[in-house]
Specification:
With 235 residues, this protein is α+β, with helices and mostly antiparallel strands. The protein contains 9 helices and 6 strands. Strands 3-4-6-5 form a 4-stranded antiparallel beta sheet, with helices on one face. It has a two-stranded antiparallel sheet with strand order 1-2. Strand 5 and strand 6 (221-228) form a beta hairpin. Mean pLDDT is 81; it is low at 82-89.
């Protein structure tokens, strides 16, 4: 059974997402050593990540029955819960592009409206999640709140990576699934994502605040910088 809060934390690391993708792409179960070779990671690192993924219910392990002496090998398989979220693909991308292109106003006005839309979407998402789980509104620490937000972006199709900094946390967003639309209309798509980050952090207790989202630091990398809310005053 998937432990949702553990799954969120597990999927906040790009290497673990890569490992799940590799397990799902394989025609058979893999050992830790085989998975390490595929992902180009050290086997000890892979074993560490596999333990986290298994606790979260995203990976299943079993002992290989060989009928010979010696310690049995452990084989790993991604569970159905580890499958990537379904996507509407090119049709969704076309719709997003049309909406972004026909949003009236100046670039600054479109950016402002897009950020507000992202904040509203984050609020609606958190309210829905609380209604489904029956849980009250939570107040999370900066790190826990950022981990939750990273999991949301992983579910959207990004490969988020969290890097702790002296002043806060840097969230590296790899492999943007909306890259082609974002390249043409960054003031809409990237501002929407910034609003989603800010709105989510606010709904999760307000301990953290995103001070910036810099798109395309590299061709497939955007960077959000997040600090403690009491260290920044936003307009």
């Amino acid at each position: 059974m998937v432990q949702r809060h553990l799954a969120h934390e597990a999927l906040a690391v790009a290497s673990r997402v890569q490992m799940i993708d590799s397990l799902r792409a394989s025609a058979r179960s893999l050992t830790a050593a085989e998975l390490a070779s595929v992902c180009e990671l050290h086997v000890s690192t892979v074993r560490f990540h596999l333990e986290i993924l298994e606790r979260a219910g995203l990976v299943h392990s079993r002992s290989e029955q060989k009928g010979t002496r010696g310690r049995p090998r452990h084989l790993y398989t991604a569970t159905m819960a580890g499958a990537p979220q379904s996507s509407t693909g090119a049709g969704y991308e076309l719709l997003a592009g049309l909406l972004a292109a026909h949003w009236d106003g100046t670039a600054d006005e479109r950016a402002s409206r897009a950020e507000r839309a992202g904040r509203a979407a984050a609020g609606a998402q958190q309210v829905s999640a609380r209604q489904i789980s029956g849980s009250p509104r939570r107040s999370l620490s900066l790190r826990d709140a950022v981990t939750e937000v990273a999991a949301t972006f992983a579910e959207l199709g990004f490969e988020p990576e969290l890097v702790t900094e002296r002043a806060g946390v840097q969230m590296n967003l790899h492999a943007c699934p909306f890259r082609s639309v974002a390249t043409a209309h960054p003031e809409v798509v990237c501002s929407l994502h910034l609003g989603l980050i800010r709105g989510s952090l606010s709904e999760l207790g307000g301990a953290a605040e995103a001070i910036s989202l810099t798109p395309f630091v590299e061709p497939h990398l955007c960077v959000a910088r997040i600090v403690a809310a009491d260290e920044v005053a936003l307009p």
